[in-house]
C-alpha cells in the first residue's frame, strides 16, 4: 500500500499480516480523496471546497493509518489515530515514523466506538474517517461517541466506509444530527459522506 498524492506520494506503508486489518481498496480510497480535495462546495455551502487543507482529522478504527496519513500528505494539519488492535498499532506507529510525521499526529489506543472525552489540548475534528470492520454494527456507536465525547467541530465532515448496502445505521445517524450528503458504491464497499453541525451553531 502506498500514499497516492501529496508530499509523501509514492511512500509505501507497512501492513501487518493476517486478516485483522482491511485496508480500504485503492479505487475507493482514490475516489474518496478526490471528493474531499475538490468536492466540498458541491456537498454543502458551509463546507470548504478542499476539505483536506488544514483539516483537523480523526481516523477511527485507524488500522495502519492509511487514510489519516494520506490526509496529512494532502495538506491536513493534524491527525488523531484511534485503534485498539496491537498488530495494527505497531504498523501504524512504524508508518508515522517512516514518514516523519510524529509532530502532526497522535496515536490513542482504544475502542473507537467508545471514545474518551476529547483531550483539552486537541482541537475538535473538522474531518473524520470512520472505517470499522464490516458487519459489526459499529458505525452508529462510533458516530454517537463522537458527539457525546465532544470530538466534532461546529461543522464537521465524516467519511464512512461500510459494506455495500449497509444502511442500518443511518436512522441512528439522523437522530444524532448527521445528514447524508453523498453515497457511492465501489465494489464491496459503500463510501458515505456525512455532515454534522452543532445544534446551537448559527449557520
Could you give the topology of this structure?
Layout (H helix, E strand, L loop, with lengths): L25 H13 L1 H4 L12 E5 L5 H8 L4 E6 L2 H14 L5 E5 L15 E6 L8 H10 L3 E12 L6 H6 L2 E9 L2 E9 L6
Parallel strand pairs: 1-2, 1-4, 2-3, 4-5
Antiparallel strand pairs: 5-7, 6-7
What does this entry look like structurally?
- The protein has 6 helices and 7 strands; from the N terminus they run H-H-E-H-E-H-E-E-H-E-H-E-E.
- The model has no long low-confidence stretch (mean pLDDT 89).
- The protein has 203 residues and is an alpha/beta fold.
- The chain is globular.
- It is 27% helix and 26% strand.
Quick description:
By secondary structure, the protein is of the alpha/beta class. Helices cover 27% and strands 26% of the residues. The termini are far apart.
Radius of gyration: 15 Å
Average pLDDT: 89
Kindly report how far apart the N and C termini lie.
Answer: 39 Å
Order of helices and strands, N to C? HHEHEHEEHEHEE
Oligomer: single chain
Give the overall shape: globular
Beta strands, count: 7
Instruction: List low-pLDDT spans.
Output: none
How are the strands of the biggest sheet laid out side by side? 3-2-1-4-5-7-6
Percent of residues in beta strands? 25-35%
**Proportion of helical residues:** 25-40%
Biggest sheet layout: 7 strands, mixed
Q: Which secondary-structure class do the elements indicate? A: alpha/beta
- Quickly count the helices: 6
Amino acid at each position: 500500500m502506498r500514499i497516492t498524492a501529496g508530499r509523501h506520494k509514492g511512500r509505501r506503508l507497512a501492513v501487518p499480516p493476517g486478516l485483522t486489518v482491511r485496508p480500504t481498496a485503492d479505487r475507493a480510497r482514490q475516489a474518496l480523496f478526490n471528493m474531499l480535495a475538490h468536492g466540498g462546495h458541491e456537498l454543502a455551502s458551509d463546507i470548504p471546497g478542499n476539505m483536506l487543507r488544514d483539516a483537523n482529522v480523526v481516523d477511527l478504527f485507524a488500522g495502519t493509518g492509511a487514510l489519516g496519513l494520506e490526509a496529512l500528505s494532502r495538506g491536513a494539519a493534524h491527525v488523531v489515530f484511534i485503534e485498539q488492535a496491537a498488530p495494527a498499532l505497531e504498523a501504524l506507529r512504524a508508518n508515522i515514523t517512516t514518514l516523519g510525521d510524529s509532530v502532526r499526529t497522535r496515536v490513542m489506543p482504544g475502542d473507537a466506538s467508545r471514545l474518551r472525552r476529547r483531550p483539552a489540548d486537541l482541537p475538535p475534528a473538522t474531518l473524520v474517517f470512520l472505517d470499522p470492520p464490516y458487519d459489526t454494527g459499529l458505525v452508529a456507536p462510533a458516530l454517537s461517541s463522537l458527539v457525546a465525547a465532544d470530538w466534532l467541530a461546529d461543522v464537521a465532515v465524516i467519511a464512512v466506509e461500510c459494506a455495500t448496502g449497509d444502511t442500518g445505521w443511518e436512522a441512528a445517524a439522523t437522530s444524532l444530527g448527521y445528514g447524508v450528503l453523498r453515497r457511492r458504491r465501489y465494489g464491496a464497499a459503500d463510501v458515505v459522506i456525512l455532515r454534522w453541525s452543532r445544534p446551537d451553531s448559527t449557520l
